[in-house]
Write a structure and sequence with these properties.
The chain is an alpha/beta fold and 212 residues long. The chain has helices at 15-23, 30-33, 57-62, 69-80, 85-88, 107-124, 133-141, 147-150, 174-177, 188-204, and strands at residues 41-42, 48-52, 89-93, 128-132, 155-157, 166-171. The protein has one domain: 3-Layer(aba) Sandwich (Uracil-DNA Glycosylase, subunit E), CATH 3.40.470. Helices cover 41% and strands 12% of the residues. A hairpin with an 8-residue loop joins strand 5 (155-157) and strand 6 (166-171). The protein binds uracil (2 copies).
């Protein structure tokens, strides 16, 4: 579980300085096999922030999160509820470097990247945080949680950059959704679409999506 309010060594950095620092990180062994660090993409600040697992092959090549097949599906699902990826979201990952062969990130790699994620949250200052899949859920909310049990539920955490609590919703990872064609009632895609509608409603509370 992450306590976002613990200070980091990057707390005096603005986004550009933070970004440059992150891009040259050699804090864990993933730095030896990556092509480049995938820091994150989107508006800063942004009312909605999304945290995935870790970069895959295409992300590692191009330096942007969620641009492969899973990313395209994620973009489509957001669009289906009127949330525009380029204008309404900041997207990043639990670890910023690709784990070899897309294995799950190891705990020491997640820990090494933790300060970056904490600083990133304070720079982006989201009101709503979406966690994609088990590694992201367990890293942010705690290892006792399982995505199949808690997806679609709201969690609240206190963060020092605003008075209201940060609202957090775990969702199925889009790579998981790619394994199921069905959009029938009760299917993973149907459930996720309903979760997205709830996220859209919560976002609307903070203003029209694209003018957040
Ligand atoms: N899967 C993730 O979790 N993150 C990416 O950036 C791409 C695929
Ligand atoms: N298992 C995962 O790791 N992620 C999902 O989204 C679903 C099952």
């Amino acid at each position: 579980m992450i306590d976002f309010n613990i200070p980091t060594e990057y707390d005096d950095m603005n986004y550009d300085t933070f970004y440059a620092k992150c891009r040259e990180c050699t804090g864990c062994k993933l730095s030896e096999t990556r092509t480049q660090v995938v820091v994150g993409v989107g508006k800063v600040p942004s009312n909605l922030m999304v945290i995935g697992e870790g970069p895959g092959a295409q992300e590692d090549e191009q330096g942007e999160p969620f641009i492969g097949r899973a990313g395209q599906l994620l973009t489509k699902i957001f669009e289906s509820v009127g949330i525009n990826r380029a204008e309404d979201i900041y997207i990043t990952n639990t670890v910023k470097c690709r784990p070899p062969k897309n294995r799950d990130p190891e705990q020491e790699e997640i820990d090494a990247c933790n300060g970056f994620l904490r600083r990133q949250l304070h720079l982006v200052q989201p009101k709503i945080l979406v966690l994609l899949g088990n590694p992201s859920l367990k890293t942010i909310l705690g290892a006792e949680h399982s995505i199949t049990k808690v997806r679609g539920q709201w969690f609240k955490r206190d963060v020092s950059y605003m008075d209201e609590p940060l609202y957090i919703m775990p969702l199925f990872h889009p790579s998981y959704l790619l394994r199921y064609a069905s959009k029938e009632k009760g299917s993973p895609k149907w459930l996720t679409w309903n979760d997205m509608k709830e996220i859209k409603t919560a976002l609307s509370y903070y203003g029209a999506a694209s003018t957040l």
